[in-house]
Specification:
Number of strands of chain A: 24
Shape of chain B: globular
Largest interface: A-B, 32 and 25 residues
Strand order of the largest sheet of chain B: 1-2
Order of helices and strands of chain B: HHHHHEEHHHHHHH
Largest sheet of chain A: 6 strands, mixed
Helix content of chain A: 25-40%
Shape of chain A: globular
Oligomer: heterodimer
Number of helices of chain B: 12
Structural class of chain B: mainly alpha
Strand content of chain A: 25-35%
Number of strands of chain B: 2
Helix content of chain B: over 70%
Chain lengths: 512, 318
C-alpha cells in the first residue's frame, strides 16, 4: 500500500486556544484517519465549537500545531481553509430560501464583471454531485420549499464541489425526523465513498455507533481520548449498545466527585404540581409529580429535553397532555398564565433572559411584582430600597451599593439578582434552569443553600441541571431524561450512585 | 458612584458644554441673541418638539420609534379646523381631534406590539396614511387648506396667555416635561419601558405584557402629537395639511443628541431637553446671523453626527 495513505489526513498536536480569562482548548492532540467518519463528542463547554472554528479558519489558535496532508496548516480565514479542502456544514444553513436550487449552487461563483452576471458557472459537476446525493431534488425547486434535510444536501453539494477533502458537520441531524436522519446517514456514507473524510459532531451517542469509525471525546477543553468505534463495541458485551454508550458517557462526564446528599426531611404529602403525558416537538410522554417542600431534579445529557420541560411549564412552548396544579387541571397558554398559576422560571441564560443589565439592583429586584414597592399607584423609593437591601443581606449579594448597575456584577451575583427578582414574585413553584452554570464554587454553594431554604419554607423547587454532582447533592428525587422522554424517577439517598445514573441517561435499561 | 452614572454624567457634561459654547459664541456674534424676547421665541418654536419628544423619548428607551409624528400632528390640526368649521363646538372639536390622534397611535402600537411589524415599516405606513388623510380633509373642505370661514373664536385657545404673558404652549411644555420626568422615575410604565428596551426577552419572561406597554407608549406619542397639532392650528388660525413635515426626524435628533440609545434601555427626559435646546439655539443663532436655511440643515446634520461619535467614544472608554 502507498505509505501516504496510511498517514493520518490531519494530525493535531498540543492545540491550545486561550480567551481572556479562560482556556477553551488545552493541549489537545489527536489524529484523523483518511476517509473515515470521525465523531467528536462532549458536553456543552467542552470546546467542540472552538475546535471547529479553528479548523475552518474562523478563529486562530494560540498554540500547538496542525498538520493537514503532512503539511503545516494554519488558516487565517475561512477561504484559506476552503482552499486547502476543509469546509463545514453548520446548523444554521447558508442557503437563500428565495432562490432556486440551481441559483443557490452557483451563488458566489458566477462569472461576473462589474456586477453583471455574464455567464453561469459550469454546472455539470455541481449537478452531478447533487444527483449522486439525493435524486429527488430538482434544480428548479425553490430552496425555501425544500425540507431541512434537502436543504442540507444542497449545502453539502455546494461544499464538496470545490475539491473538498474534509467536511465538518455540526449536529446535522439535530432538527431532522427519524426518517430524514436515516436518509442523511445514507448521504454521509456516500460522501465517505467519494473519499471525503468527515468530522461528525453530535449529541446523540447512538449515532456514533451507527455511522462513526472513530470517536474522540472532549471535556473541559481537554482531549479525553480517541477510540476506534468497533473496538469499544467489541470490548463491551456485544449487542448491548447502551453499555457501549455508557463507556462514552463516562469519558464525557469524567469522575464525578459527589458531596453527600442531605435529605431535607420534608414529608412528601401535598402534591402541588402534576404533569401527565406532556408531549411537544422534542418531548414524548413526560409525566412527573412535584410535592410541597421538595427539590425535584431533572437530569439528562444535552438534548435530552430538560430545558424543554421547563419551557412547557412556564408557558413558552405549546404542548399536549395535562398539567394539574394542586389537583386542578390547567392549560398554561403563556408566561402570564404560568405566573398567575404560581410558577416562576429562573432562566438558564441570565444575560439573555434574566437580568436587565442597564438597570440597578434596586430597579431589577421588584420588576416581577411592582405592587410590592408601590404606594398610591406610584413607585415608592423607600419600599424599593428596603426590598433590595433585604435580598442583598439575605443572599449575601456582594455589592458596594444597591444602586450598582447589574451588568457590572460578577456572574454569581448576577445570578443572585435573577433569583431575588424571581423570589419577589412569591410563587409556590420555582423552576431553576441551570441555576449555577458558570459561577464560582463559593457562590454555587450559597445558591444551593438558598434553594434548600426555599424548599424548607414549603416551596416546590424543580432544578434542571446538566451537572450530575449538583443534582445528586441537592435533589430529593431525580427525573432522568433520555432523548425527550422520562427514563425513570429515582429517589435520592441510600445506595444511589452516579454510575447507575450515568448508565440510565446513556440509554441503559431500568432495573429495580 | 458607579461606572454607569459616571458615563451618563460625562455625556451630560459634553452636552452642556456644547450648549454653553453655542451660547457664548452667539452672544458675541449677535446683540439680539441674549434677550428675553429671543429666548421666548426659541422656546415657542421648540415647544411642540419638546412636548412630543418627551413621549417619543420614552418610546425610544423601550427600543422603538415613531415616524408618523409629523403626519399625525398635521392630521389633528386640519381635523380640528375642519370640525370647527362644520359647527362642532371648539372644545369638543379639540377633544375629538386628540382622540383621533390617539387612534393613530394605538394602531401603531398594535402593529408593532401585537402583530410584530417592524416599527419603521408600521409607522411609515401611518406616516403616509395620516398625511394623506390630512390632504383629503382639506379637500372635503373644498381647497388646499382650511383658512377661511373658521369661527371667530377659533384661535383663542392657541393664543391664550397664562398670567397675561405665558403662551399656553409653554405652560403645556413645562407640565408635560414634569409629567414625563415623573413617569420615567416613579411609575411602572417608566420602569417597564427601560426593562423592555434593555432586555426584551427578560421582560417577557418576567411577565411584563410587552405588547400592551408598547400600545400605551405609542398612544401617548399620538396624543401629544395631536395636542400640538390642535394648539398650532389654533395659534396660526388656519389649517395647512403640509405642516410639521419631517418633524419626526427633528424629534429623533433631539432624543439621540440627548443621549438616549437608539437600541433602547437608557436615556432621560432631561437629556432630551438639552438635545432639543442645542438644536433650537443653534438654529435661532444662525437665523439671527442671516445664514441661509440650507446651512442650518447642514449644521443640524453635523451636530447630530458629532454628538453620536462623541457618545460612541465615551462608551468605548467607559
Amino acid at each position: 500500500m502507498d505509505p501516504k495513505n496510511t498517514d493520518p489526513l490531519m494530525s493535531i498536536k498540543g492545540l491550545r486556544k486561550e480567551f481572556p480569562g479562560t482556556l477553551a482548548i488545552n493541549n489537545v492532540s489527536f489524529d484523523i484517519r483518511r476517509n473515515t467518519i470521525h465523531c467528536l463528542i462532549g458536553e456543552n463547554g467542552s470546546g467542540k465549537s472552538t475546535m471547529i472554528k479553528i479548523l475552518t479558519g474562523a478563529m486562530e489558535r494560540t498554540g500547538g500545531e496542525i498538520f493537514f496532508e503532512g503539511m503545516p496548516f494554519q488558516p487565517k480565514t475561512i477561504k484559506e481553509a476552503m482552499a486547502r479542502g476543509i469546509t463545514a456544514l453548520y446548523q444554521e444553513l447558508n442557503v437563500v430560501d428565495d432562490l432556486s436550487v440551481e441559483e443557490n449552487l452557483t451563488l458566489g461563483r458566477e462569472n461576473q464583471r462589474f456586477g453583471m452576471i455574464l455567464k453561469h458557472a459550469d454546472l455539470s459537476s455541481l449537478i452531478a454531485n447533487l444527483k449522486s446525493l439525493d435524486e429527488s431534488i430538482k434544480l428548479t425547486d425553490r430552496v425555501g420549499d425544500l425540507s431541512v434535510a434537502q436543504r442540507q444536501v444542497v449545502e453539502i453539494a455546494k461544499a464538496i464541489s470545490t475539491d473538498c477533502k474534509m467536511l465538518i458537520m455540526d449536529e446535522p441531524t439535530a432538527s431532522l425526523s427519524e426518517e430524514e436522519t436515516k436518509r442523511m446517514f445514507k448521504v454521509i456514507r456516500k460522501l465517505k465513498s467519494k473519499g471525503i473524510t468527515i468530522i461528525y459532531i453530535s449529541h446523540k451517542l447512538s449515532e456514533v455507533f451507527e455511522i462513526g469509525d472513530d470517536v474522540s471525546v472532549l471535556r473541559d477543553g481537554e482531549m479525553i481520548g480517541s477510540r476506534v468505534v468497533a473496538e469499544i463495541r467489541n470490548e463491551t458485551s456485544c449487542n448491548s449498545e447502551s453499555e457501549a454508550c455508557l463507556e462514552l458517557v463516562k469519558m464525557m462526564l469524567g469522575k464525578v466527585v459527589l458531596e453527600e446528599y442531605v435529605s431535607s426531611g420534608n414529608e412528601r404529602t401535598e402534591k402541588i404540581l402534576e404533569a401527565r403525558n406532556i408531549g411537544t416537538k422534542k418531548l414524548r410522554d413526560v409525566s412527573f409529580e412535584l410535592y410541597k417542600g421538595e427539590i425535584l431534579g431533572f437530569y439528562g445529557l444535552v438534548g435530552a429535553g430538560k430545558t424543554e420541560v421547563a419551557q412547557v411549564l412556564y408557558g413558552m412552548d405549546p404542548y399536549t397532555g395535562e398539567i394539574l396544579f394542586k389537583d386542578k387541571p390547567m392549560k398554561i397558554k403563556n408566561v402570564a398564565w404560568a405566573l398567575r398559576a404560581g410558577i416562576t422560571l429562573i432562566p438558564e441564560e441570565r444575560r439573555i433572559a434574566g437580568i436587565f443589565g442597564q438597570l440597578s439592583i434596586r430597579a431589577n429586584v421588584p420588576i416581577m411584582r411592582m405592587r410590592k414597592v408601590m404606594k398610591n399607584g406610584v413607585i415608592n423609593r423607600n419600599k424599593e430600597n428596603q426590598l433590595a437591601d433585604g435580598f442583598i443581606k439575605n443572599m449575601s449579594l456582594a455589592t458596594t451599593s444597591r444602586e450598582k448597575v447589574v451588568g457590572f456584577l460578577s456572574g454569581g451575583n448576577q445570578q443572585k439578582v435573577v433569583i431575588a427578582k424571581c423570589l419577589n414574585r412569591e410563587s409556590d413553584i420555582l423552576l431553576m434552569d441551570e441555576p449555577t452554570r458558570g459561577i464560582d464554587v463559593g457562590a454555587k454553594q450559597e445558591i444551593h443553600d438558598i434553594i434548600r431554604e426555599l424548599a424548607n419554607k414549603g416551596k416546590g423547587v424543580i432544578v434542571f441541571s446538566s451537572e450530575l454532582p449538583e443534582i445528586m447533592q441537592l435533589c430529593d428525587r431525580i427525573v432522568l431524561m433520555y432523548e425527550g422522554s422520562v427514563r425513570t424517577v429515582l429517589k435520592n439517598g441510600g445506595n444511589l450512585d452516579s454510575d447507575r445514573v450515568m448508565a440510565l441517561v446513556a440509554g441503559g435499561e431500568v432495573t429495580a | 458612584m458607579n461606572a454607569k452614572s459616571i458615563q451618563i454624567d460625562r455625556q451630560k457634561i459634553v452636552l452642556v458644554s456644547i450648549f454653553a459654547m453655542i451660547m457664548v459664541a452667539m452672544s458675541f456674534l449677535s446683540p439680539r441673541f441674549l434677550q428675553v424676547n429671543n429666548f421666548m421665541n426659541i422656546f415657542l418654536q421648540l415647544a411642540p418638539l419638546i412636548i412630543i419628544a418627551s413621549a417619543a423619548n420614552l418610546l425610544m428607551i423601550s427600543g422603538n420609534f415613531d415616524l408618523s409624528i409629523g403626519s399625525v400632528l398635521a392630521f389633528s390640526a386640519i381635523m380640528h379646523a375642519y370640525l370647527s368649521k362644520q359647527g362642532v363646538p371648539i372644545e369638543l372639536s379639540i377633544v375629538l381631534s386628540c382622540l383621533m390622534a390617539i387612534v393613530w397611535g394605538v394602531s401603531n402600537g398594535v402593529m408593532v406590539g401585537f402583530l410584530n411589524v417592524n416599527p419603521v415599516i408600521a409607522t411609515m405606513g401611518t406616516m403616509y396614511a395620516a398625511r394623506g388623510f390630512a390632504y383629503l380633509i382639506a379637500r372635503w373642505d373644498g381647497g388646499a387648506n382650511i383658512s377661511a370661514g373658521l369661527p371667530y373664536d377659533f384661535n383663542v385657545f392657541g393664543r391664550t396667555n397664562i398670567f397675561g404673558f405665558l403662551p399656553i404652549i409653554l405652560v403645556f411644555m413645562v407640565a408635560i416635561v414634569l409629567i414625563f420626568i415623573f413617569i420615567e422615575n416613579k411609575t411602572v410604565l417608566g420602569r417597564f419601558s427601560f426593562a423592555i428596551g434593555g432586555n426584551r426577552t427578560a421582560a417577557e419572561l418576567s411577565g411584563i405584557r410587552v405588547p400592551l406597554v408598547l400600545v400605551a407608549l405609542y398612544a401617548i406619542v399620538g396624543l401629544l402629537a395631536g395636542l400640538c397639532g390642535v394648539i398650532q392650528v389654533s395659534r396660526v388660525g388656519s389649517g395647512f395639511p403640509n405642516i410639521a413635515e419631517g418633524m419626526e426626524f427633528d424629534v429623533v435628533v433631539a432624543i439621540v443628541l440627548g443621549g438616549t440609545s437608539m437600541l433602547g434601555g437608557s436615556g432621560s427626559t432631561i437629556g432630551m431637553i438639552l438635545g432639543a435646546s442645542i438644536v433650537g439655539v443653534a438654529a435661532n443663532g444662525l437665523n439671527l446671523l442671516n445664514v441661509p436655511y440650507f446651512y442650518q440643515t447642514l449644521s443640524k446634520g453635523i451636530l447630530l453626527l458629532i454628538s453620536v461619535f462623541a457618545d460612541q467614544a465615551i462608551r468605548r472608554r467607559g
